[in-house]
Model the fold of this input.
Amino acid sequence: MGVPAQKKAGRPLAFSLACRLLLVAAFLPGLDRVGAQTSPTLPPPEVVQYKSFENETLSLFAWQGRKVAFLTESKDLDPEAMARLCHTFDQVYDFYQKATGQEPARAKHLAGRITVAEVKKTCGAGCGYLGATGIELMPDCFRTLYEGVLRQNVYDQALPYEFGRNFWFYSPQLAYHKDADAGSIVTGYAVFMRFLALDAAGAKLGPFRDRSGDDFRRELQKLVDLYLADPAFRWENTLKIGAAPPNPMGLNGTDLFAAFCFRLCRDHGGTAFAEKLWREAGQRPPAKTTPEAIDNFVIAASLAARQDLTQLFQKDWRWPVSDHARQEVARLLADKKP
Done:
C-alpha cells in the first residue's frame, strides 16, 4: 500500500521504482503490514481469572495496555494486532475522560485497567456497564474487531460504542422518563461519541451493515436533513418514540440524536463543543420529568455554544422548549459575559 500505480504497464523503470518503494516500506522501522505506525510492544499475555457479568468464573489471557486490558479466550493472537488494539483503546479511554472530565466507577478492572472480556454469553453482542468500568464482547463480535485491525487496520463500531456506555454519567440530567424512549439519549450519546473517540485515536471505522464506515457516518449525519425536509417530523414522533425518518440503513432515534449532536458540533466548534456540552450537562440539576430533561440538554447546548439556541431547537428542530429554559439560557449567558 502507498505505492503509486504504474502509469504504463510493462515499463521496466516504473516497475523497478514500485519494487524499490515496496522494499523500502517493508523495512522502514515503525511501519506495520498495513502501513500504520506500530504500537508499543506488549508483554506476553498472562492467564487471569475473570468473573463475567453472568457470574461465571473464566480463565482468560490478559493483554494489558496503559488504560485498557483485553481478556481473550486464546493466547494465539497476533501480538502486533493486540498491541494496536491496546494502544488505540488507551487513546479512546483518554478521549472519553477528557471529553467528560470524569472517569467511570470501578466495577470490572485489572490492576486499574478497564477490562474488555471475550465471553460466550453476555447481554448482547457487546455489553457495557453504564457509568462504570467493564465491557464484554461475544466471540463473533471480538473476532470482527480483531480481524478488522489485523487485516485492514479498521475498527468495528461495537467497542468504541461500549466505551460510551462506561462513560455515560448523565441519566439524572438528560435521560427521558417513562413517558418517552430514554434510549434515544442514553444510547444516542454512545452512538455519537464512538465516532469522535475513533477520530481522536486516529483510527478508521470499519464496515457497518454492509456499508463502509465512511458511508455509515454520512448516512447518519444526513438524518437531520431528512428530518428538517419534512415538517411532519417533530420531537414527538421521532426522539420521543426512538424513531428516525425513513433512511437507507434503517437507522433509528439513537442515530437521529447523534446526528443532532453532529450538527451542533459542525456549527459551534467541533469536538471542543462536544466536550463543553457534556460538562455543561453534568452541571444541570436532576430532571424530574422528560420536559425538564429536554430543557437541560437545550440549556447545556446553549451554554457550550455561548449562544442562545432555544429558537433553533424549538422553531427549526421542532423540539418542545419551555419558557423556563429560555429564561434560564438568557440569565446564564448574561452571567458568562465578561
Q: What stands out?
A: The first strand starts at residue 46 and ends at 51. The radius of gyration is 23 Å.
